Amino acid sequence: MLTARNLTKNYSNLHVLKGVDITVGKGEIVTIVGSSGAGKSTLLHILGTLDTPSSGEVWLRDVNLGTLKGNALADFRNRHMGFIFQFHHLLPEFSALENVCIPGFIAGSKKAAVRERAAFLLETLGLADRMEHKPNQLSGGEQQRVAVARALINAPDIIMADEPTGNLDSKNARELHHLFIELRDKFQQTFIIVTHNEELAPLSDRQLVMRDGKIISEELTAKTIS
Predict the structure, then answer these.
(1) Percent of the chain clearing pLDDT 90 (strictly above)
(2) Fewer Cβ close by (within 10 Å): the C or N end of the chain?
(3) Candidates 2.60.40.420, 3.30.390.10, 3.40.50.300, 3.10.580.10; correct CATH number of 27-38+71-220?
(4) CA 175 to chain centre
(5) Neighbours of 3 (CB within 10 A)
(6) Is 186 within 8 Å of 192 (Cβ atoms)?
(7) Rounded CA gap, 43 and 60, in Å?
(8) Are 207 and 33 in contact (CB under 8 A)?
(9) How confident is the model at residue 203 (pLDDT cuts 50, 70, 90)?
(10) For position 224, what pLDDT does the model report?
């Protein structure tokens, strides 16, 4: 479903990515691990069209993302990709339900349908009684679940997650791990996850190890949580 070929990223004389190839199939959870400075987040941002490569191509749904510009790129990203970051980036003045709805409204979907799907997602994620709460009324784990629901609102082909458990305690981090597996199993949701979490990475379908701007190894990992 997603394929990247020979991705490089240079900042003057600094070579952050040095020819990265990656393929991700539908319903896969792929984690990218490696030390700080290995190029993990840069790679994720390029795959998610939040940054552009110095060379190379990224394809999603048989579309060369490098050919999309401006509004066309923003629209494609909104409809086909979801994002989860270490910090949830929820808008404090809006309720959980309203935060989840925002990407759907931007996509131009009917408001009633967006609100119905947002409520369904929040209920699915265990937040049925928290929909009208604002972010400062939610725990850290609840806030991150709202961010997950927001990433899912447009039924994206793929979700890009950058250190999604980095701001959570071990209990909430493990619950989020379970959630990703459940979403993969229930909805065939695809994930690419950059993480330092030594518990999360082995639970993916594949683990890619980066070092000095390259993927140096790949291994199949567990698909279920014991």
Answers:
(1) 59
(2) C
(3) 3.40.50.300
(4) 16
(5) 15
(6) no
(7) 15
(8) yes
(9) confident
(10) 44
**Average pLDDT for 132-159:** 92
User: How many CB atoms neighbour CB 117 within 10 A?
Assistant: 19
- The per-residue pLDDT for range 88-124, each reduced to its tens digit, is 789 999 999 999 999 999 988 999 999 999 999 999 8
Extents of the domains making up the chain: 27-38+71-220
Tokens of 124: 């699915």
The partner residues of 82 in beta bridges, in order of sequence, read: 159
DSSP conformation letters of the chain: -EEEEEEEEEETTEEEEEEEEEEE-TT-EEEEE--TTSSHHHHHHHHTTSS--SEEEEEETTEEGGG--HHHHHHHHHHHEEEEESS----TTS-HHHHHHHHHHHTT--HHHHHHHHHHHHHHTT-TT-TT--GGGS-HHHHHHHHHHHHHTT--SEEEEESTTTTS-HHHHHHHHHHHHHHHHHH--EEEEE---TTTGGGSSEEEEEETTEEEEEEE---S--
